Amino acid sequence: MSDKLLRMISRDQKIRAFAAETTELVETARKIHQLSPIATAALGRTLTAGAMMGVMLKNPNDKLTIQIKGDGPLGGIIAASNHQAKVKGYVHNPEVYLEPNKLGKLDVGGAVGRNGYLNVIKDLGLKEPYIGFVPLVSGEIGEDLSYYFLKSEQTPSIVALGVMVDRIGEVMTSGGFIVQVMPEAGEDVLATLEKNLGNISSVTTYLSQGKKIEEILEMVTGKIDMQVVDIIKPKFICDCSRERMEKALISLGSKELKDIIEKQGQVEIECHFCLNKYSFSKEQIDNIIEQ
Ligand SMILES: [Zn+2]
202 C-alpha to center of ligand 1: Å? Predict the structure, then answer.
Protein backbone atom coordinates (compact mmCIF):
# COMPACT_ATOMS: atom_id res chain seq x y z
CA MET A 1 0.00 0.00 0.00
CA SER A 2 1.46 3.27 -1.13
CA ASP A 3 0.78 6.65 0.46
CA LYS A 4 -1.52 9.04 -1.34
CA LEU A 5 -3.61 12.11 -0.68
CA LEU A 6 -6.78 12.92 -2.60
CA ARG A 7 -8.43 16.29 -2.93
CA MET A 8 -12.11 16.05 -3.73
CA ILE A 9 -15.08 18.28 -4.27
CA SER A 10 -18.76 17.50 -4.60
CA ARG A 11 -20.39 18.03 -8.00
CA ASP A 12 -22.42 20.94 -6.58
CA GLN A 13 -19.22 22.35 -5.00
CA LYS A 14 -20.80 22.62 -1.57
CA ILE A 15 -18.64 19.98 0.07
CA ARG A 16 -14.92 19.47 -0.18
CA ALA A 17 -12.93 16.58 1.15
CA PHE A 18 -9.35 15.47 1.66
CA ALA A 19 -8.44 11.84 2.22
CA ALA A 20 -4.98 10.48 2.93
CA GLU A 21 -3.20 7.18 3.40
CA THR A 22 -0.02 7.89 5.32
CA THR A 23 1.35 4.52 6.46
CA GLU A 24 4.85 4.97 4.98
CA LEU A 25 5.04 8.60 6.05
CA VAL A 26 4.20 7.84 9.67
CA GLU A 27 6.50 4.80 9.74
CA THR A 28 9.33 7.08 8.53
CA ALA A 29 8.57 9.49 11.39
CA ARG A 30 8.47 6.60 13.87
CA LYS A 31 11.89 5.33 12.80
CA ILE A 32 13.56 8.76 12.81
CA HIS A 33 12.21 9.71 16.22
CA GLN A 34 12.16 6.22 17.82
CA LEU A 35 8.54 6.83 18.75
CA SER A 36 6.67 4.70 21.26
CA PRO A 37 3.31 3.32 20.01
CA ILE A 38 1.33 6.12 21.60
CA ALA A 39 3.74 8.80 20.38
CA THR A 40 3.50 7.24 16.90
CA ALA A 41 -0.29 7.53 17.03
CA ALA A 42 -0.26 11.12 18.29
CA LEU A 43 2.37 12.40 15.87
CA GLY A 44 0.99 10.24 13.04
CA ARG A 45 -2.50 11.70 13.39
CA THR A 46 -1.09 15.23 13.48
CA LEU A 47 1.17 14.64 10.45
CA THR A 48 -1.74 13.14 8.50
CA ALA A 49 -3.92 16.16 9.28
CA GLY A 50 -0.98 18.45 8.50
CA ALA A 51 -0.53 16.87 5.06
CA MET A 52 -4.20 17.46 4.22
CA MET A 53 -4.22 20.99 5.65
CA GLY A 54 -1.06 21.83 3.69
CA VAL A 55 -2.87 20.92 0.49
CA MET A 56 -5.72 23.28 1.49
CA LEU A 57 -3.30 26.21 1.19
CA LYS A 58 -3.75 28.28 -1.94
CA ASN A 59 -0.22 29.04 -3.10
CA PRO A 60 2.81 26.79 -3.77
CA ASN A 61 5.01 28.61 -1.24
CA ASP A 62 2.46 28.67 1.59
CA LYS A 63 3.38 26.77 4.75
CA LEU A 64 1.45 25.53 7.73
CA THR A 65 2.38 24.47 11.25
CA ILE A 66 0.17 22.69 13.78
CA GLN A 67 1.19 22.98 17.42
CA ILE A 68 -0.57 20.99 20.09
CA LYS A 69 0.30 21.58 23.70
CA GLY A 70 -1.59 19.65 26.35
CA ASP A 71 -0.92 18.81 29.97
CA GLY A 72 -0.27 15.11 29.27
CA PRO A 73 3.09 13.26 29.38
CA LEU A 74 3.73 13.66 25.64
CA GLY A 75 4.58 17.30 26.30
CA GLY A 76 3.63 18.71 22.91
CA ILE A 77 3.43 17.98 19.20
CA ILE A 78 4.65 20.01 16.24
CA ALA A 79 3.85 19.21 12.62
CA ALA A 80 4.74 21.40 9.67
CA SER A 81 3.64 20.96 6.09
CA ASN A 82 3.36 22.68 2.76
CA HIS A 83 1.20 22.87 -0.33
CA GLN A 84 2.80 19.70 -1.78
CA ALA A 85 1.95 17.61 1.33
CA LYS A 86 5.56 17.41 2.44
CA VAL A 87 5.43 17.12 6.20
CA LYS A 88 7.81 16.97 9.12
CA GLY A 89 7.20 16.88 12.84
CA TYR A 90 8.18 15.75 16.30
CA VAL A 91 6.86 15.25 19.81
CA HIS A 92 8.60 16.43 22.97
CA ASN A 93 8.67 13.06 24.72
CA PRO A 94 8.86 10.31 22.08
CA GLU A 95 9.19 7.43 24.57
CA VAL A 96 5.92 7.95 26.49
CA TYR A 97 4.07 4.77 27.36
CA LEU A 98 0.49 4.60 28.67
CA GLU A 99 -1.93 1.74 29.33
CA PRO A 100 -4.65 1.36 26.67
CA ASN A 101 -7.86 3.34 27.29
CA LYS A 102 -11.25 1.86 28.22
CA LEU A 103 -11.86 0.84 24.62
CA GLY A 104 -8.55 -1.05 24.54
CA LYS A 105 -7.08 1.55 22.20
CA LEU A 106 -4.01 3.74 22.35
CA ASP A 107 -4.90 6.52 24.77
CA VAL A 108 -3.84 9.47 22.61
CA GLY A 109 -6.04 11.89 24.58
CA GLY A 110 -4.35 10.78 27.79
CA ALA A 111 -0.88 11.21 26.30
CA VAL A 112 -1.59 14.64 24.82
CA GLY A 113 -3.67 15.79 27.78
CA ARG A 114 -7.16 17.22 27.74
CA ASN A 115 -6.24 20.68 28.97
CA GLY A 116 -4.21 22.84 26.69
CA TYR A 117 -4.39 24.39 23.27
CA LEU A 118 -4.03 23.75 19.58
CA ASN A 119 -2.79 26.37 17.24
CA VAL A 120 -2.37 26.55 13.52
CA ILE A 121 0.11 28.96 12.01
CA LYS A 122 -0.16 29.70 8.30
CA ASP A 123 2.72 31.40 6.56
CA LEU A 124 1.08 32.81 3.45
CA GLY A 125 3.99 35.02 2.44
CA LEU A 126 2.39 38.07 4.05
CA LYS A 127 3.97 40.34 6.65
CA GLU A 128 2.32 38.53 9.52
CA PRO A 129 1.40 34.85 9.63
CA TYR A 130 -2.19 33.80 10.24
CA ILE A 131 -2.55 32.22 13.70
CA GLY A 132 -5.63 30.30 14.81
CA PHE A 133 -5.86 29.25 18.43
CA VAL A 134 -8.38 27.01 20.23
CA PRO A 135 -8.44 25.16 23.54
CA LEU A 136 -8.21 21.35 23.33
CA VAL A 137 -11.47 19.41 23.34
CA SER A 138 -10.25 15.88 24.05
CA GLY A 139 -6.59 15.69 23.05
CA GLU A 140 -7.56 12.99 20.52
CA ILE A 141 -6.45 15.42 17.76
CA GLY A 142 -9.28 14.69 15.26
CA GLU A 143 -11.91 16.25 17.51
CA ASP A 144 -9.59 19.10 18.40
CA LEU A 145 -9.00 19.93 14.75
CA SER A 146 -12.70 19.72 13.99
CA TYR A 147 -13.28 22.29 16.74
CA TYR A 148 -10.47 24.43 15.32
CA PHE A 149 -12.05 24.47 11.83
CA LEU A 150 -15.41 25.47 13.27
CA LYS A 151 -14.23 28.15 15.69
CA SER A 152 -11.21 29.56 13.91
CA GLU A 153 -12.07 29.11 10.23
CA GLN A 154 -15.89 29.08 10.57
CA THR A 155 -15.98 25.91 8.48
CA PRO A 156 -17.93 22.97 9.89
CA SER A 157 -15.70 19.93 9.31
CA ILE A 158 -15.55 16.26 10.04
CA VAL A 159 -12.04 15.09 10.86
CA ALA A 160 -11.19 11.40 11.20
CA LEU A 161 -7.61 10.32 11.84
CA GLY A 162 -6.09 7.01 12.81
CA VAL A 163 -2.80 5.17 13.23
CA MET A 164 -2.58 1.45 13.96
CA VAL A 165 0.66 -0.11 15.18
CA ASP A 166 1.55 -3.79 15.51
CA ARG A 167 2.96 -5.61 18.53
CA ILE A 168 6.49 -4.38 17.99
CA GLY A 169 5.29 -0.83 17.42
CA GLU A 170 5.67 -0.63 13.63
CA VAL A 171 2.98 1.24 11.73
CA MET A 172 0.48 -1.14 10.12
CA THR A 173 -1.89 1.45 8.71
CA SER A 174 -2.36 5.17 9.00
CA GLY A 175 -4.72 7.60 7.35
CA GLY A 176 -7.64 9.91 7.68
CA PHE A 177 -9.96 12.35 6.03
CA ILE A 178 -11.38 15.84 6.44
CA VAL A 179 -14.80 16.69 5.02
CA GLN A 180 -15.76 20.36 4.96
CA VAL A 181 -19.21 21.76 4.45
CA MET A 182 -19.58 25.13 2.75
CA PRO A 183 -22.14 27.53 4.30
CA GLU A 184 -24.55 27.18 1.37
CA ALA A 185 -24.81 23.41 1.88
CA GLY A 186 -27.23 23.73 4.79
CA GLU A 187 -27.12 22.28 8.28
CA ASP A 188 -28.91 19.04 7.44
CA VAL A 189 -25.96 18.01 5.22
CA LEU A 190 -23.55 18.22 8.15
CA ALA A 191 -25.98 16.33 10.38
CA THR A 192 -26.20 13.52 7.81
CA LEU A 193 -22.42 13.34 7.48
CA GLU A 194 -22.02 13.18 11.26
CA LYS A 195 -24.64 10.47 11.50
CA ASN A 196 -22.83 8.44 8.81
CA LEU A 197 -19.52 8.92 10.62
CA GLY A 198 -21.10 7.63 13.81
CA ASN A 199 -22.10 4.44 12.00
CA ILE A 200 -18.64 3.46 10.79
CA SER A 201 -15.85 1.92 12.81
CA SER A 202 -12.35 3.42 12.80
CA VAL A 203 -10.44 4.42 9.66
CA THR A 204 -7.56 2.10 10.55
CA THR A 205 -9.81 -0.93 10.93
CA TYR A 206 -11.04 -0.50 7.36
CA LEU A 207 -7.56 0.29 6.06
CA SER A 208 -6.23 -2.87 7.70
CA GLN A 209 -8.98 -4.82 5.93
CA GLY A 210 -7.61 -3.54 2.63
CA LYS A 211 -10.17 -0.82 1.94
CA LYS A 212 -8.95 2.31 0.19
CA ILE A 213 -9.27 5.64 1.99
CA GLU A 214 -11.67 6.97 -0.67
CA GLU A 215 -13.93 3.95 -0.07
CA ILE A 216 -13.98 4.71 3.65
CA LEU A 217 -14.72 8.36 2.93
CA GLU A 218 -17.62 7.26 0.73
CA MET A 219 -19.21 5.57 3.76
CA VAL A 220 -19.45 9.06 5.27
CA THR A 221 -20.33 11.11 2.19
CA GLY A 222 -22.90 8.50 1.11
CA LYS A 223 -24.86 9.54 -1.96
CA ILE A 224 -23.03 12.84 -2.40
CA ASP A 225 -21.21 12.76 -5.72
CA MET A 226 -17.56 13.45 -4.81
CA GLN A 227 -15.08 14.03 -7.62
CA VAL A 228 -11.33 13.63 -7.30
CA VAL A 229 -9.58 16.87 -8.28
CA ASP A 230 -6.02 15.99 -7.41
CA ILE A 231 -3.89 13.09 -6.19
CA ILE A 232 -0.66 13.91 -4.36
CA LYS A 233 1.95 11.75 -2.66
CA PRO A 234 2.39 12.92 0.95
CA LYS A 235 5.89 12.48 2.36
CA PHE A 236 7.89 12.95 5.53
CA ILE A 237 10.74 15.17 4.37
CA CYS A 238 12.79 17.70 6.27
CA ASP A 239 13.98 20.80 4.45
CA CYS A 240 16.70 21.75 6.92
CA SER A 241 20.10 22.74 5.57
CA ARG A 242 23.45 24.06 6.74
CA GLU A 243 22.49 27.55 5.54
CA ARG A 244 19.31 27.46 7.61
CA MET A 245 21.22 26.28 10.69
CA GLU A 246 23.71 29.12 10.16
CA LYS A 247 20.83 31.57 10.30
CA ALA A 248 19.66 29.99 13.55
CA LEU A 249 23.18 30.37 14.94
CA ILE A 250 23.36 34.02 13.88
CA SER A 251 20.16 34.67 15.82
CA LEU A 252 21.93 33.47 18.98
CA GLY A 253 24.26 36.46 18.78
CA SER A 254 28.05 36.58 18.74
CA LYS A 255 28.55 36.60 22.50
CA GLU A 256 26.58 33.39 22.98
CA LEU A 257 28.42 31.73 20.07
CA LYS A 258 31.82 32.72 21.48
CA ASP A 259 30.81 31.28 24.86
CA ILE A 260 29.87 27.93 23.33
CA ILE A 261 33.10 27.75 21.31
CA GLU A 262 35.10 28.55 24.44
CA LYS A 263 33.45 25.72 26.38
CA GLN A 264 33.03 23.06 23.70
CA GLY A 265 35.55 23.91 20.99
CA GLN A 266 32.81 23.66 18.35
CA VAL A 267 29.10 24.30 17.95
CA GLU A 268 26.79 21.39 17.26
CA ILE A 269 23.18 21.97 16.39
CA GLU A 270 20.50 19.35 15.82
CA CYS A 271 17.39 19.69 13.69
CA HIS A 272 14.31 18.93 15.84
CA PHE A 273 12.39 17.58 12.86
CA CYS A 274 14.83 15.03 11.42
CA LEU A 275 17.58 14.85 14.09
CA ASN A 276 20.29 15.66 11.54
CA LYS A 277 23.31 17.14 13.26
CA TYR A 278 25.29 20.07 11.93
CA SER A 279 28.61 20.98 13.47
CA PHE A 280 30.57 24.17 13.07
CA SER A 281 34.26 24.47 13.88
CA LYS A 282 35.83 27.46 15.63
CA GLU A 283 37.02 28.85 12.27
CA GLN A 284 33.57 28.51 10.76
CA ILE A 285 31.97 30.23 13.74
CA ASP A 286 34.56 33.02 13.58
CA ASN A 287 33.60 33.48 9.92
CA ILE A 288 29.89 33.65 10.79
CA ILE A 289 30.55 36.20 13.54
CA GLU A 290 32.67 38.30 11.18
CA GLN A 291 29.96 38.38 8.56
ZN1 LIG B 1 15.85 18.54 9.54
Answer: 32
